[in-house]
Amino acid sequence: MKAIVLHSIVPLRAEAAEESEQLTQLLFGEPCEITDSCPRWKKVKSDLDGQEGWVDFKMISPMTDEEYTRYSKAWQETTARVLYPMAYAMSENNGQTIPLTAGTRLPDYKNGEFDVMGVKFRIQAEMVAPQPLEMNAQNVMQVTRFMLNIPYLWGGKNAMGIDCSGFTQTVHTLFGHNLLRNAREQITQGTAVASLADAQAGDLVFFDHHDGKISHVGLLLDQEHVIHSSGRVKVEMIDGEGIISQEPSAAEDTHATKTNDGRYYTHHLVAIRRY
Prior knowledge:
This protein has 275 residues and is mainly beta. It folds into three domains: 1-77, SH3 type barrels, CATH 2.30.30; 78-131, SH3 type barrels (Roll), CATH 2.30.30; 137-274, endopeptidase domain like (from Nostoc punctiforme) (endopeptidase fold (from Nostoc punctiforme), Alpha-Beta Complex). The protein has four helices and 23 strands. The strands form six sheets. A six-stranded antiparallel barrel has the order 17-18-19-20-21-23. The radius of gyration is 19 Å and the shape is globular.
């Protein structure tokens, strides 16, 4: 059975319980497959990135096979995305508005209008990227500066809370790249970049804690600066060793190592990938 998300965001949880770990979030208009069920909960698999988990049954709407076939094609093929961390769309059906977060797909978008399951919505055209952006330093800076200081939230991918891989997935969808959800999955995509000297804006940088296990991902603004979600979305220095933090909290990080000038490496660089 298929279903669709008709809320701004829906938590996808590891278990069928409100207190269970949030794995990721499904965004408005996102179709999914129902793979299991129990009282009050449905287990679903996201059409976006294949993530599977449990959602409250009230937060998804079942679709017939015919509805899914018709809608999913438009959803998969659309290039229009919400460009800014938060925008509002108004339903022409009832006049109500719904907040939409960056990266939300807008099926059949044209001139400030889009269609979800036969319901037309209006949205300010300047809040939308109708086509994928060109990957260059100017566009990367323009997109990411509006996301600065969004707080870190495990499994989050919206303006009220976002984790490191949710941040990179959201940014890259605006450039037409369909990244998988987690850092350990994202490192399997794209092509390797040999070093920071060969890197460019938009490349992803991956980190571990000197144990070989990918634990973090960020996005390069240039060869010396990375933007990433760690505590909050922020810009920090980077070199061939890793991220260099000047924040007082870095001294309390059990994985941090002190630099010669009294700053701290908080994340150890292990790979760079281009998409």
